[in-house]
């Protein structure tokens, strides 16, 4: 997965990335013709360098133009990336110059920052780490504010300095954790996204954060 991330996968299997973008564009066009108001957003996963973002954006824009000619429907489709690799967070200013959207994939960002796979370690030694107080809580349940959280804060600041209108959110189970929602609010994110069963908790915590300060949206 790490070797074939995002746009690199299209370089290995030509046309795959374009096929996915085309499917999104045609589906949105059909909904538009049916009187609906679709608002698709396209984010390339696991980007680690601005050069990857540039290639992905060019590919996406080319396919969207082709789809517009095929369907006769013009779609305003923001193009962005998932921030899941520590290097992407560290180079957020450059990436923001080519992206209108950031979405932190905190599950992968946590794995890569800590240097371990969730599936491998939770059953192996997390219990002992919690027992010894190395972890107060699993970093996959509540955002690791001192480590992963610092990458998030840094990327938000750098990204917004490069693009003030940058839309930033988070995708993953952290988006439904109360303590994490509060952290994301303080970091300046626009929204959180999480599993359906976690939405009520996310909305409640976002509302509490809004009362305490500026608002945070949920999806």
Widest sheet: strand ordering: 1-2-3-4-5-6
Q: Note poorly predicted spans.
A: none
Topology order in helix (H) and strand (E) letters: HHEHEHHEHHHHEHEHE
What is the overall silhouette?
globular
Give the beta-strand count. Answer: 6
Description of the structure:
The chain is an alpha/beta fold and 219 residues long. It contains eleven helices and six strands. It has helices at residues 7-12, 16-33, 50-71, 86-90, 92-96, 106-114, 118-121, 126-132, 148-162, 178-187, 199-212; strands at residues 42-44, 79-83, 101-105, 167-171, 191-193, 217-218. Strands 1-2-3-4-5-6 form a six-stranded parallel β-sheet. The chain is globular, with a radius of gyration of 18 Å. The two termini are 27 Å apart. The mean pLDDT is 91.
Question: What are the defining features of this structure?
Answer:
219 residues, 11 helices, alpha/beta, six-stranded parallel β-sheet, 6 strands, 53% helix
In short:
The chain is α/β, with parallel strands linked by helices and 219 residues long. 53% of the residues lie in helices and 11% in strands.
SSE topology:
Elements: H1 7-12, H2 16-33, E1 42-44, H3 50-71, E2 79-83, H4 86-90, H5 92-96, E3 101-105, H6 106-114, H7 118-121, H8 126-132, H9 148-162, E4 167-171, H10 178-187, E5 191-193, H11 199-212, E6 217-218
Helix pairs in contact: 2-3, 10-11
